[in-house]
Specification:
Layout: H1 2-8, H2 12-26, H3 32-55, H4 66-77, H5 82-107, H6 111-163, H7 170-177, E1 184-192, H8 202-215, E2 220-223, E3 228-234, E4 250-254, E5 258-259, H9 260-280, E6 287-290, H10 291-300, H11 304-315, H12 323-337, H13 342-349, H14 353-367, H15 375-389
Parallel strand pairs: 4-6
Antiparallel strand pairs: 1-3, 1-4, 1-5, 2-3
Helix pairs in contact: 1-3, 2-3, 2-5, 3-4, 4-6, 5-6, 9-10, 10-15, 11-15, 12-13, 12-15, 13-14
Length: 396
Amino acid sequence: MSKVAMALMPDSTQISNYMTDLESEYVEGITPGIRKALSNLFDASTVPMLDSLARGVPIDTVEPSPEMVCQYRTVVREGVSLTAALKANRRSMPDVLEWWADAVKEHCPDPAQRLDVLRVGSSYILAYVDRMVERFVEVFEAETALLTRERSLAHFDDVRRVLAGERIDPEAVSQRLGFRLVGRHVAMVLRDESGTTGPDGTLETTVRKINRELADGRGLIVRVDLRTVWCWFPCGKSHPQHVPEPQGLISVGVGRPGEGVAGFRCSHSEALAALRVAELSAATPPSVTWYEDVDIVSLCSSDVARCRTFMEDELGPLAAGGPFAARQRATVRAFFAANSNYRATAATLGLHHNTVRYRLEQVERALGRPLEYRRLNLELALHLAQILNGEPELPE
């Protein structure tokens, strides 16, 4: 094994280039900066790995060199997520072991020894890579936390002043943020609901994906804490029709597009309100909640206790849990949506119109009043129940 490793030393540059090409193929969203960082990393790590392999250095004593740690940090700062890095490493390992097998075949002429050299060397390489990955994860977490603080501190104070309504110079603040406040934009708030504190890359990956698909990387991203990110994306005259599905346990609140500094503030406030409604309704992440879909609920639920009391007072027995009450609520919603037309309601629900009549008579008996009495209050209570209970449009 030592002989094969020493024979590969003169080819360290070639091996480094091979590894760079291999990892670049597997890293999602590769950029010239990321490729350069990977190239520098493998330049710094190839010779130490071959040296450890040649000398049989115990794995538990192997540590990355200061130069390798420096390149680890560079990879992180170039925007490679931990998930992407680990995935690329897993995908490339079969190719690395195939490369070692070819080297053993070329530099180990004794067929009797070749199998042992292949087996022992492969085990050592896997253990060595695992050791380096452990150290990379440690560096990644520390560097991500530092990078987040640096960027957030750089942007957060300006953003806070804008949101607080303080007097600012929009052009000067726009230059510092790298984002035009005078344009038309839409705000989003993303929150990691996993309950973990370690940066596993899921939140960052979701933010980058949204930024890439909606704004070609031109969005303003502010990391508020380990679980929360504020975002603004330029949207021109068009209204975003969709948001890429979040990854993991990520909840997203989306405001309406706004113009200028006032729109910057208003859209952010709406995104926060949408996320609050999602939390009230116990929406299961990943989820995307649009303010325009929950604006009435947001306004009515600023005092949650009074909102739920209003619902219970107006709905009476219909506010109960369980499938029967949920079916009753959905039937009344469909009836109101059909302008109180029994046949149209029946067509919507896939029922006979007499069945609809029977259900609605049951509802009126349960309420103790006609459906048209305080109809606005009843419709509002039904809408609040649907959103806050996460109910479908039609009964199941």
